[in-house]
Structure formats: structure tokens, C-alpha cells
Amino acid sequence: MQSGTPTPSVPASQPYTIASPPHQSSSLQSPPLPPLPPSEGVPSGAPASYTPFPSTETRHQLSHDTLPPPVPASPPSINRQQSLAETLKELQEQAAFVPRSSVVRTAAANVPIAVSTVVEPEVGVEESVSELYIAGLTARELFVRLPESDDVSLLLEKYLRPEHRPARDLSGEWRGKTLNELIATHNWRGVARYSYDAVTQSPPEQTAYILSHWLLRFQALVRLRLFQPLAVELASVTSLLPPSSCFGPVELSEPSEADIPLFHPAVPFELHVLVASLPSLQGQQSRSVELVTMLIRCCKEALWAAKKESKEADQRIWTSRVERLGVLLAGLFAEVKASPSASSLLSSATSPSSAVLSALCRLGISAGEMTSLDRSLSAMPAEDPAKARRRIQILRDVADGKYVEAEVELRRLVDEDADDVEARTNLAVVLLYLARVEEATTHLISLLSTHPHIAYNSPTILFNLCTLFEISTEHATAKKVGLLRDAARYGAQGIERGCFKLK
């Protein structure tokens, strides 16, 4: 079986959407601006801070904490060689996985993976981990053959004659490209095949290296929204791992339950988070709420054990993990319309970090609770390298209808960093709210030329631009088909048909 011949969702903030895109992430992770009235799925008379949610039909294609593939501010650099751990961390900040450094071994000779061969492990919890041999992790039978078509292919077949359809490389062939180049060009099928080759051609005793590339494979499948293959492959891999109470019920014979660790030190923590997050990717938020809650409980037990043994480094690690999982859980609560529970959970933090405060602010905007929003906003540090406080203040201005003030601040962000795609996308939305439709359209189109690999692979940008076409011209369908054709030239892998608003 050649998993690497796939032809047709890593889960960081995301630009605002003009309305509710068909593939929308948690309101805590990606704060949208108020939708345009009237808009599909938006109740008449909804408050300005109303946040629409995807329909049941599209919910099955949802990812979290993340979760559609968010748009990074700029593509990963391809002029330097990143370690695999750095690459995973960048992807994890855009997806559902808690970042963790990994020990990466030398790649197999016939898989010239462009990563560093030595990465410092996470201090504390993992520092004494030695390589653990797990039989079967390199077996080709663990991989699922990916579908040979996708939504973009189907739309091309419907709207364009064969001679007008751009060539799309959906083979996953990556030879001649580095991992950084594959990620920068959003070639997720290439990343999936890349990981397949790395896993299957690695010496089986290099477990940490193999698991790190399995994680990379899973990240690619999330970007491609191939959640069913992801579920099958993830179940196959976790079934081979050492017993852990975090992976669900364990049948006991020998040893006793007390001998089964909460977390096996050789198993990347991201796998636990992915197992808990997977149901939400498939539209089963309630199940993910249960699994994430269980995972938080296990992390707290590990934290208490570290405190008991006075291991300060471990305490910091587990405290960070509990906090990040709390934000993830709050996002799930928001998705199932349990905003009070989400607010109570986030407010329970004794010393909330910027991430928690930012999540509280976004929740306040989503729920229209301006008092709690202002309280959380005032608690955020004034000096923030990530500019989170400024971005939240822009949301606050938009919620108050202060579009001119929002435009001024967004232009400042763009002037400071022309590669800030999020700010540039949000500026186009604010221009629309100011009834400057032509300027908003031109502004978004400029992104297609300055940042094509990002813009043509962004569900948010594509959806917003198609909405602007519908508003501004009688020839919207032709323009949307043209956008589809151009996006296909840049891959458009993992983009669902609803982003082009074509039936």
C-alpha cells in the first residue's frame, strides 16, 4: 500500500471573516468580526458581537484550537534549516496540539529530510527519557490510502472544461523539496508522503524520531481535513504504544492498575491531546469535552506529584499543559453554546497568562459581554510582542461600531509589518463595514499577489473575497470560478467547496 500516493486541516490566530465561513474554528481561537446582516445562518437582529457557528452539515469538517488550518502571519522561512521539533511547534501553534520539543534522531540515509539531527528535549518531565523500542511503528499496514480527489477537484470538473483546468499535483511527491518548502507552499500531501517515507524507512529502534514524524503526518491530515483516515491511523499507532490511562480504558491482567502511568515518558504529549481533540474534528464536541476533561485531570495529578516531589521544572511544564488544555476545553464549551461554563473555566485561573486573558476577551466578544471583556483586556500586558492586546482592542472597537478607529489601528499594524496577513485581511473587513467595498476587494486581491501561497490556501480569505464578489458585481460566479482556477494552481489542498460559495 502506498500511502504516499495520496491525491485528493498544524490547529495562532486567524483573520476575521465577513460572514460565517463553512469551515470555522473555535470562537476563542479565531475571533471573527460581526457578520454582515443579512447573512446565511445569522439570525435577524443578532447583536453586533454575534458569532455564527457552522451548520451541522459543515460541522463534520471542523477542527479545533485551531482548527481550520489557520493562516500564519507569514510563511515559514525556507532559507534556513529548521529542526523537526521547531517545525512541529510552529504547526502545533496553529492546530489542536500542545507544543512539545522532541528528540529527533538521524534520518534514514535514503530519506534526505532537511532537519537538524539533534534537538534539546523538554527540560524536566522528559529529560531522563531513553529511546524506547516499540515494535511495529514503521509498518506500512498502519497507513491508510488517501482519497484521490478533493472538493477543489470536483469544483474544477463542474465549472471548467478539461483544457481550462490547471494542473494540480496531488501525488504527494516531495523529492527535490525540503520540509520547509512543503510547509511554506501548503503542500500537505507532500508533507504526508514525506512523513510516510521517513517512518517506513527509519530503523525501528529510533522510536522518538518515528513518533515525531507520525505527528507530522497527523498534522498534514488535519490540514487536509481527512479526519477518517486520521482516526484510523491514530488508532493504529496508539494501539502499539505503552499502556496509559490517558488513552482510555486499559484491560488489566498484570500488572495492577496502580502500575500503569498516567503518561508514559516515551509518548509525545501531543498524541494525548490529539486523541482527545479528534472527536471535535469529526463534529462530536461533547465527546471531546469528556476526553479533554479527563486529560486535564490526569495532568493535574501529574502536577500534584511534581509538587510533592519538589520538581520545579516539572511543575512549570504541567502547569502550562493544564492551562493550555483549559483554553482548549473552553473553546469546546463555546462551540456547544455553553459560554457561561467557558467563562467560569477561564476565570478560575489564579494567575492567568496572556493566552487565557486573550481567550477570555474573545469569549466576551462572542457572547456580547463587554464588561467582562474590558476587565480581561485591562489585565493584559501593555507591552506584548505578539500584539495580542492591540488586536483584541481592535475587536472591541468593531463591536462598538468604531470602524474608523479600528481601521487606523489595523493600518498601523500593516505599516509595522507588511507580512501581517491577519491584519491585512481584517483591514479589508473593516473597510467593508465602512461601505468601501471596492477598496476592500482591491485590498484582498492584493494579498493574492503578495502572499499567494498563503492567500490562495486560506479558507477565510477565499470566503471573504467571494462574498465581496457577490456584493459588488453581477458577474460574481465568473469571478469566483476564476478565483477557484487560480487557487488550484497554488494547490488549495484542504480547502472545502463552501469557501468558494459555489454549489
TrEMBL record:
UniProt GO cellular component terms: Golgi apparatus; TRAPP complex
Positions with biased composition (Polar residues): 1-17
InterPro entries: TPR-like_helical_dom_sf
Ranges annotated as biased composition (Pro residues): 31-40
Annotated region (Disordered), positions in chain: 1-78
Residue ranges with Low complexity bias: 20-30
One Pfam family matching this protein: TPR_19
Entry superkingdom: Eukaryota
Protein's recorded name: Tetratricopeptide repeat protein 15
Lineage per the UniProt record: Eukaryota, Fungi, Dikarya, Basidiomycota, Pucciniomycotina
